[in-house]
Description:
Layout: E1 12-13, E2 19-20, H1 51-54, E3 60-61, H2 86-90, E4 91-99, E5 103-110, E6 116-122, H3 129-145, E7 154-160, E8 163-169, E9 173-174, H4 175-181, H5 186-205, E10 208-209, E11 218-220, E12 226-228, E13 235-236, E14 243-245, H6 264-279, H7 288-294, H8 300-303, H9 309-318, H10 329-333, H11 336-340, H12 351-363, H13 396-401, E15 421-423
Parallel strand pairs: 14-15
Antiparallel strand pairs: 1-2, 3-7, 4-5, 5-6, 6-8, 7-8, 9-11, 10-13, 11-12
Amino acid sequence: MITETELIFSPERTSNNSFHIFSSKKTSHRGTTLNKPPKPVSCRVFRYFTPAAATARSANAISVSTDSYGVALESPFYTKSDTSTYWDQCFEHLECLGRGSFAEVYKVRHKEDNQLYAIKRSLTKFRGKSDRDQKLKEVRFHEALATHRNILKIIHAWEERERLYIQTELCESNLLEYSAENSMTQSMIWHFLYQISRALDFLHSLYYVHMDVKPENVLITYDGILKLCDFGIVHDLRSASTLAQDGDARYLAFEILSGTISTAADVFSLGMAALELVSDYDMPVTGDLWTNIRELKLPTEIISVLTDIELKQLLLRMIHSDYKIRPSAKDILDSPTIHDQICHMPSPFAYNQRRHEHTVSSTGGNNSPTSHGCHTPIKKPKRPPNYCGYHDEHSDDELRSHSFHDTSRLTPPPVVGDPLRIRLFPTDSDEEMNGDHFYFRKSPLQFKFDSSGTED
């Protein structure tokens, strides 16, 4: 007699390559006699991906702005036959600076030049060609903009084993962490507006919209230079695509909900970030207060700290509900306080200047020689203890002439009425989205909008 335990689910391949599935039901219920199946043999289990897709590939440079695209990386510390990756062989991993749903950022030391860098590494493999192309857009945008002093410098980018790596200069901190440890005066807010407006003016001149301006995406160098970073959701106003991704809801402009995307959205986000920094007020992500702020009904906690009348008026214009009334980044730079005072003053964010001021106050010494520029810090930095200011060796016009996108060849940006569409929440493929995302925060708005105002 055949027991039920002996009747297992096991495929038996026949001569015509078909399969017979043996059931655990009793023979009396089937009307036919079942023979005892042969002894199961072990077989290799295949997943959705073929073994070829799972094999390790050598690291390939993916820089889209140079001739090195697709070229395998070379290094005296890199052995391709080794099972470990280029990431593991050529870099000493010192510290994880942050981790989100899609990527993590590490502080590393390059073994070739012994210098410190930051590397952004994808947490998951590419989900397909479209996902890979979308991730490579960040590299293309970043390399096109990184010639500016107030934009984070990208060193190199490559893909390895279905993951993306972006190597950049290393900064001391981001502005959100800095504001948590240091009080932000109104004078510092002027400096913040000055430096980031310079970055936005350069970016907007190339018809790009950053879409995610916020304190977390503003890095601070040792010399006190503020650097705009994270170009993962940059929107090209000249693009034929009608899709755009939203940034952090705390700093999101109201007109984005109706699909109107313009450079004024970045100005709004910059103004909201400035208000948050100067007041230390936790901006809402949804609700009536979120709407009230965008109707210029600001909480008393914010209004009470704005004693600088010119700064207050400028910030209120920057977050105006009518995007046509907002000043451009160039208008902010032309404001009297910035034009006549701030641009001639040293940066209050400089780490070396704060340390020097502390030394001077305790020893009564004199100021030391000034230093210029921004460099990736090395293990034992040898820098003068002061910073002279913001004056660049090259003007923005000169930088634009060397940009990867010559503005003289650009077509005019689309008119406001062009059909634009915005995705305000993660797609089904973004199942790993969570609240502690380092680069993006999930929008609290659960709808899609298009130019007609209908819901998908």
